[in-house]
Structures are given as C-alpha cells and as structure tokens.
C-alpha cells in the first residue's frame, strides 16, 4: 500500500477543469499540467523540496549514526568530483569531435575549390551538412524528444520546482551529446553551451539516483540522495559544470548557476558548485596542453573554446565612452528584437512540429539546405583582397581554420567574408576577436555576416535537435561590434577586435539579461581583465534598454513552452487578493482511518496525488487536520526507502496494483504515512505573501485553513498553478485592465509592440 498513499501534492484540485493547454498554440492557461518538453507536449508536475516528516522519516533519521552522517557528507563531495570529471571529459570530446568532423568537411570542400570544381564542392558541402542535420534531428525526434533545444529552460524550470518526464534520462543524455555534435558540425548556426548545461544536469541527476532497479544496478550508498532536495543541489552543480566545460570558465559557471539557473541557493551549495567547476578547469587545462602539442586533430588548438585577446596594455579614455555606450544601446535594442522574433518563430515552428514527426524532419531539412546555400553562396559577393605582407599567419589559408580563407580567390589573395562565414562558429569568433587585423575585413563583408548570423540564429534554433543560443549570440554580437569599431576607426584607442568583444557582451546582455555571470564568462573567455570596466558598462546599458521591451530569452521560451515558473517577486495585484480568492474546490479529503476501496477509487478518478488527512469523532472532539498523532509501528513493515524518490524511470501506477474484494473492504491507518507537519496558511493571508512562502521553501502544495473554527479544517490546496498570472486573471478579469494600464505607464513602447493585445483588452 505504500505506493499509493502519497501526500506530496496536487497540481489540480479534484473538480478542476478537464481541459488541457497546448503551449504556444493558444493563450497560456497556467491551470494545465502539460508543457512542451524539448519538442513534445508532456505532462508535468511539481517537485517537493519540503522535508516529509512522517513516522517513517523520523525513524530513519533517528537511526542514522555518526558513520552514516559522515558517509552522507563525503558522498556529496565525491559526487561533485565525479560530476566535474565526467562533464569535463564530455565537454572535451564534444569540442574535439565538432572541430574534426567540421574540419574534414571543410578540407574536402576546399580541395575541390582549389581544383575549380565549384559545383561538386557545393554538393559535398550541402550533402554533408544535410546528413549531419538530419541525423541530429532524427535521433532527437525518434529517441529522445526531450533533448531538443538548448535544455536551459527545462533545467531552470526543474530548479524552480517543475518536473517533466525524461529530461534527465540516460537516453536524453546520449542524444543530447551525439545530437549536439552532429548539429553543430552541420554548419547550422547553433551552439553547444546550452546543450552542455543540460548534459551536466543529466549527469548529475543520474549519479544521484543510486543506480537502476530496472537493470539490477542499485547502490545503497547513494540511497540518501533519493529525494528532490539533494538532487536539486546536484543538478545545480551539474549546470555550473556545463558552462565551465563549454567556455573554460569555472567562476563564470558558478555565477551562471547562481544568477540564471538556481531558484534556491545557500553557502554550502556555493562551495560544492565551486569545487565542481574547479575540477572541470583542472581537467580541461590538461587537455588544453594536449591540444597545444598538436594532438587535437585537424584544427590544432581549436578543440576548446578560448578566444585569447590578452594585451599587456589597453589604453582608453573618455573619448571612447560614447562609442561603448552606443554599443550597449544597440545591443539592448537588437537583443530585445532577437528575443521577440525568436518567440514568434518558435510559435510558427510548433504549429509545424505538432503535425507529425515527418514535418519535424522536413523542417530540419529545409533549414539545413537554406543554411548551406547561404554559407556557400554569400562569399562570392565579396571582393578578393591581397594577402598582407606583415602577417605571421599563412595567407591564404587552405583547408584549415585561419584568418585568410582562399575560397575562389587566386593565389596570394583571400576572401574575408569566407574567413567568417565559411568556417566553424568558434573560428569565426576567433577571427572577429583577433588583434592586429584592423585592415582585414571590408565593411560590406562584416555587415553581410552580421545580418546572416542574426537571422540564421533565429531560424536554426527551433528545429528538433540539440541547439544552444550562447555561441550564435556571441558571433552575432561580435560581428556588429566589429562593424562599429570599423566605423569609429582611428578616432578610438581600442582595436577592432576589442570592439567585437564588447559587441558580443552587449548582445548577450540584451538577449539573456544577465550581468555578473556574463561579465566573468567573457573575461575568462578572452583572458583580458583590462576590459572589465567597459564590459560592465556595456552589460548594464544593454540589459537596462532591453528590459523596457520584453523578458530574457530563456524566460520567454519557458513561458512559450508552458512551464509554470515562479518568479522571485510578486505582482502588485497579488497584494490585493487573499489566498481564499484563488483557492478552488471542493476538496477531496481522507480520514485518518480510511477504507481501502475509497482510497483506490479516489486515486483512480483524480489526476493528483496529495490529499489532506483529517481526524473526526470519535478520534477527535471536532474535525481537525491531522497533526502529531501516534499510530502503528509502520517501520516494522516499511522502510524509508519504500517511499524514496523514483529515478528517471516510470514509477508505480494505481492501475498496476491488483487488490481482491476482501482487501478493498479493509481499512488502513494513514497516520504513519502522513506528513504530520505540513505548511499551512490562513485563508485571509495575501496571495503575495503566500507566494513568497511557497517559492522560498520549495513547496509542492500549500494547505489553506479557515480563519474561523466550526468549518472544515481545510479550505483547499494551493499549488504553483494557482499563483500563475493567467489563472488569477481568469478568476478576476477586472484585474486585467488595471494591470495593462500599469504596464503601459511603465513601458510606453509596449503599446506599439503589442498593439494586438491592447486592442483585445479594449474589446
């Protein structure tokens, strides 16, 4: 019976509507229990970070000796070490595979270009890209749809308390790694940083599951981590390790997890995540030395992302500040426009993807062909330039990465646009960041490259394949930053490569709306601490400008996918409402001594798994919510492990439990299995105050009790869906008009940007 008596929470009250919301296709309805996970619509539920204090928990906790407590503490650090080690190895192999697969493709294509076999070169280039893109799309669509996209919105929602099926499964991990390598190698404008965050989270979650009962692999020494609280900490460390491995930025990884990913943080978690990223940095340092020795394949030291623009002295004065401020403003405007267009494109793609798997594959096929045509065709628009006489690098570059791609040019000349566009994303960024190349690129080439990257990054992200946003945004921002540097010219003391770094920072700030973590990541990427003041200014300006138009890209994607994410702040109208204004019923209750048949019937006819347990006469003088009431010694028949959190596999279902008619007529004492100290709020508490309690404690449900005695001991249950704006405004539609007026007063640009919404409200 332990598998069906669960007091972790309901996502819907018993008689709530049966309609479900299909995200991206209709106005959000936060009362639903579905969201787009990867590329498929899946049921979701909430995690429960609350300590479950029933009789079994108390017995298990009291039985722990000093050795078990020491083992638990030691295992935390050991798991962090393993997470850092495995993620760094995966990150290195990921980068190395991309560089060599793409390298073979460019070498073969370049050799054909040297022989003037341009038609065959395009055929080989486009077909190889198509095969790689279709492979990434097919394994994602057929094996692990949850691996589609960057994975950061899913991981961020998980750390906020939203659980979705298969986001951390073994097959999702494998498809994420293999699919990311294939997608990035196919010359699609997608990145591998987002997939690395998801990969790190998957590795952390799998390590904390304690093995698999399905395959007969169980490790008792990991039994302590079979709960949502400890897995949340491990996943946080895994996401930090993912960024550290993707950008070789250990401190930036910790700050990224703190600023962007985690909804709950404490000093002990800071220590462990820092230790995890330190392991990543040490392992990657060893592999960087290996690459410097020339053992990393075709692209030499290109196997790891590191854009070294170190300079012993960088001189800048007040005359450079206006150009830097302009970069920040432009980055904010472009970032908000990028987010707006990407949100619209994702909605269109979802209309296509929902039809069938064949449509998903066809979409990937079209984007791949379109991308190949642009990458191969646009360099023909650029004029060939003579090789500089003072360059230390071979010119022209033939069949490998470099600043001087030959493409179709004659001997001793190079194609500057091909050096950017007919290259991997990492090498394009290196070329844009490079110093001492102020005369290398033409205005038209950089402008064409910027426009191409801006729109290809939007069109490529929505296909059914692992795809990140970090690197595409960096390369796009670097191109327009370089263009601004070329316009400023000799009027500035900064070289064009440094303007490219500042442009990348401004677009990252305008799109992702992070400041501290992005600043440190860029500094670790470029190895140039002297740029710190300028990067700080650019990030602050770009984020401030972009916040006036829309939210961060990951917040928009989470909302479009339908994740019920709880923000750190409460909306002003929530202070005008009490919890009694949003809680709905009638509520399904259980008695302390309940008939088995009644329990089975309720579990089979409702879609939630949490129910208040009350005692009535003769067990109590009046109906009360069950507290610290004694019962049978359930620890004799059950252990805490029987109620441990399941892994990524499927848990037991009520339909799978077979009971005889005699057993259905029996009664069961629920007291030993019931959380004897649940969090409760009085029905007159403000909704804003209840939201803060719900989010900070990490609850799955919150019981609402009456203010006056003589009524039912429980008024209802609040879940995270009850705190969603769409749910509240659907119950109180008069709040919509006042809320919209406040938004228009704060951000006048919203009236023009979302005129359709304004018109619908007026109607």
UniProtKB/TrEMBL annotation:
Q: Name one GO molecular function term.
A: voltage-gated chloride channel activity
Spell out the protein name for this chain: Chloride channel protein
Alphabetical list of InterPro entries matching this protein: CBS_dom, CBS_dom_sf, Cl-channel/antiporter, Cl-channel_core, Cl_channel_pln, ClC
Family assignment from sequence similarity:
Belongs to the chloride channel (TC 2.A.49) family.
Which species?
Answer: Carya illinoinensis
Pfam families on file = CBS, Voltage_CLC
Cellular location(s):
Membrane
Alphabetically ordered keywords of this record: CBS domain, Chloride, Chloride channel, Ion channel, Ion transport, Membrane, Repeat, Transmembrane, Transmembrane helix, Transport, Voltage-gated channel
Q: Which PANTHER family match?
A: CHLORIDE CHANNEL PROTEIN CLC FAMILY MEMBER, CHLORIDE CHANNEL-LIKE PROTEIN CLC-G-RELATED
Domain CBS span(s) in chain numbering: 673-734
Q: How is this protein positioned relative to the membrane? A: Multi-pass membrane protein
| Residue ranges the record marks as coiled coil | none
A Gene Ontology term for the protein's cellular component: chloride channel complex
């Amino acid at each position: 019976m332990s598998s069906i008596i669960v007091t972790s929470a309901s996502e819907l009250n018993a008689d709530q509507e049966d309609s479900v919301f299909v995200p991206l296709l209709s106005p959000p309805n936060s009362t639903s229990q579905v969201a787009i996970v990867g590329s498929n619509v899946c049921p979701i539920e909430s995690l429960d970070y609350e300590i479950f204090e029933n009789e079994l928990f108390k017995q298990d906790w009291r039985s722990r000796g000093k050795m078990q407590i020491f083992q638990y503490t030691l295992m935390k650090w050991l798991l962090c070490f393993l997470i850092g080690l495995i993620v760094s190895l995966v990150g290195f192999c990921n980068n190395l595979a991309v560089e060599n697969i793409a390298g073979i493709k460019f070498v073969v294509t370049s050799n054909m270009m040297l022989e003037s076999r341009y038609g065959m070169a395009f055929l080989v280039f486009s077909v190889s890209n198509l095969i790689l893109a279709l492979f990434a799309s097919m394994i994602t669509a057929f094996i692990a749809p949850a691996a589609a996209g960057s994975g950061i919105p899913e991981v961020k929602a998980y750390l906020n308390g939203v659980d979705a099926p298969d986001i951390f499964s073994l097959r999702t991990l494998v498809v994420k790694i293999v699919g990311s390598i294939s997608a990035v190698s196919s010359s699609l404008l997608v990145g591998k940083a987002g997939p690395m965050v998801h990969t790190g989270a998957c590795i952390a979650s799998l390590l904390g599951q304690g093995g698999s009962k399905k395959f007969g692999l169980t490790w008792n020494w990991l039994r302590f981590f079979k709960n949502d609280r400890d897995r949340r900490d491990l996943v946080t460390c895994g996401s930090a390790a993912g960024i550290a491995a993707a950008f070789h930025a250990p401190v930036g990884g910790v700050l990224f997890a703190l600023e962007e990913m985690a909804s709950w943080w404490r000093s002990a978690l800071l220590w462990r995540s820092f230790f995890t990223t330190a392991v990543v940095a040490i392992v990657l340092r060893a592999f960087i030395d290996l690459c410097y020795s020339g053992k990393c394949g075709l692209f030499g030291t290109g196997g790891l992302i590191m854009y070294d623009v170190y300079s012993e002295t960088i001189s800048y004065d007040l005359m450079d500040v206006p150009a830097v401020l302009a970069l920040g403003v432009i980055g904010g405007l472009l970032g908000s426009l990028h987010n707006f267009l990407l949100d619209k494109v994702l909605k269109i793609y979802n209309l296509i993807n929902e039809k069938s798997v064949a449509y998903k594959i066809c979409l990937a096929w079209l984007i791949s062909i379109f991308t190949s045509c642009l990458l191969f065709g646009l360099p023909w628009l650029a004029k060939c330039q003579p090789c500089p006489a003072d360059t230390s690098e071979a010119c022209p570059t033939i069949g490998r990465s470099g600043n001087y791609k030959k493409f179709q040019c004659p001997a001793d000349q190079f194609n500057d646009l091909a050096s950017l566009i007919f290259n991997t994303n990492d090498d394009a960024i290196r070329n844009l960041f490079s110093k001492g190349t102020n005369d290398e690129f033409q205005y038209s080439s950089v402008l064409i490259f910027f426009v191409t990257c801006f729109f290809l990054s939007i069109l490529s992200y929505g296909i059914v394949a692992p795809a990140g946003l970090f690197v595409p945004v960096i390369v796009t921002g670097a191109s327009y930053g370089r263009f601004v540097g070329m316009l400023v010219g000799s009027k500035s003391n900064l070289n064009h490569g440094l303007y490219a770094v500042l442009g990348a920072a401004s677009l990252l700030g305008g799109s992702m709306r992070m400041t501290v973590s992005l600043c440190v990541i860029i500094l670790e990427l470029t190895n140039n601490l002297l740029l710190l003041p300028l990067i700080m200014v650019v990030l602050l300006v770009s984020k401030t400008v972009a916040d006036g138009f829309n939210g961060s890209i990951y917040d928009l994607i989470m909302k479009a996918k339908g994740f019920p994410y709880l923000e750190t702040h409460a909306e002003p109208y929530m202070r005008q409402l009490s919890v009694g204004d949003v809680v709905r019923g009638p509520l399904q209750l259980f008695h302390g001594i309940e008939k088995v048949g009644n329990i089975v019937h309720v579990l089979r006819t409702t879609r939630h798994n949490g129910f208040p347990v009350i005692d009535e006469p003769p067990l109590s003088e009046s109906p009360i919510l069950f507290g610290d009431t004694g019962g049978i010694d359930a620890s004799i028949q059950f252990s805490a492990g029987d109620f441990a959190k399941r892994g990524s596999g499927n848990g037991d279902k009520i339909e799978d439990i077979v009971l005889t008619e005699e057993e259905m007529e029996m009664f069961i004492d629920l007291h030993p299995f019931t959380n004897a100290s649940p969090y409760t709020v009085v029905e007159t508490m403000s909704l804003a105050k209840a939201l803060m309690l719900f989010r900070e404690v990490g609850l799955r449900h919150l019981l609402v009790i009456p203010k006056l005695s003589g009524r039912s001991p429980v008024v209802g249950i609040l879940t995270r869906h009850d705190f969603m704006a769409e749910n509240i405004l659907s119950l109180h539609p008069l709040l919509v008009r006042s809320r919209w007026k406040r938004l228009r007063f704060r951000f006048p640009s919203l009236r023009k940007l979302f005129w359709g919404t304004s018109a619908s409200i007026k109607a």
